[in-house]
Amino acid sequence: RRGAWQRSLADQLTMGAVRVAKLLCVVGLALSAYALYVEHQKSVHGDAYTAACDVNSWMSCSKVFMSQYGSILILPNSAWGVVFYLFCLLLLSQQYFSLLLLCALFASLGSLGLAYILAVKLGDFCLVCTSIYAVNFSLLWSAVLLWQRQSTKAKDA
């Protein structure tokens, strides 16, 4: 059995991991919202609009967002991202760490697939996309830690 100070430390570590995961969700939400904004501006203004993330011909986020791979089931990937990160924030607030782990795993696998498409099929580099991939892998790491702590806490109870 663990002492009170060990439980207190474990609780503090869990709360720290929750804060990190929430911050990652907010960053992912902001990146997804920006991607959605860029897509909207590009669809309204066409080539007259240049996004801040359009650096050159091989490093263009709007080219990636507007490609055939930029949407799933008629919704832009960025809209799915907004929904995903809001859902993850809800899961964190309710401490549903097992479901968060599954969602983060799904997002990380999706990121691997999209990274392949980005590099191999599109031959592009998207700063926003790559940042979202990093957020998803970091969120997966946080979710694993939270799930482990929750599992350990349940065993000690």
Task: Walk me through the structure.
There is one protein chain. This protein is mostly helical and 157 residues long. 76% of the residues lie in helices and 6% in strands. The chain contains five helices and four strands; from the N terminus they run αββαββααα. The protein has helices at 4-45, 61-65, 77-93, 97-121, 127-156, and strands at residues 54-56, 59-60, 71-72, 75-76. Strands 1-2 form a two-stranded antiparallel sheet. The protein has a two-stranded antiparallel sheet with strand order 3-4. The longest helix is centred in the N-terminal third of the chain and has 42 residues, at 4-45. The chain is elongated and about 60 Å long. The mean pLDDT is 91.
Q: How many distinct beta strands?
A: 4
Mean pLDDT: 91
Approximately what portion of the residues adopt beta-strand conformation? 5-15%
Morphology = elongated
Low-confidence stretches: none
Largest sheet: 2 strands, antiparallel
- Rg from alpha-carbon coordinates: 18 Å
How far apart, in Å, are the first and last alpha carbons?
9 Å
What structural class is derived from the secondary structure elements? mainly alpha
Order of strands in the sheet with most strands? 1-2
Strand and helix order: HEEHEEHHH
Number of helices: 5
What is the helix fraction of residues, given as a range?
Answer: over 70%
